[in-house]
Amino acid sequence: DALSISLTAHNEQLYIKHCRPPIDNAYQSMLDFVRAARKHVPDITLTAIEGLDEVDMSACADIAKKLGVKFRGRILDEVG
Question: What pTM, to 2 d.p., does this model score?
Fold first, then answer.
């Protein structure tokens, strides 16, 4: 079993800017989900998109590392 979760940004402000979540506290809820999922899913990867305005990819990778999961960067407008 594996999960790929879109981290999208290294902070809540940019997450809201790029994702426009319909609920409050969505960024923190996503991080809480990652922490909870680690107990049940052995292979979790967070992703972010290189080229999104103001997103710091190395900071995103650091978040994944702190959460104990993998990180994969994607390129804006590239499929695959």
Answer: 0.91
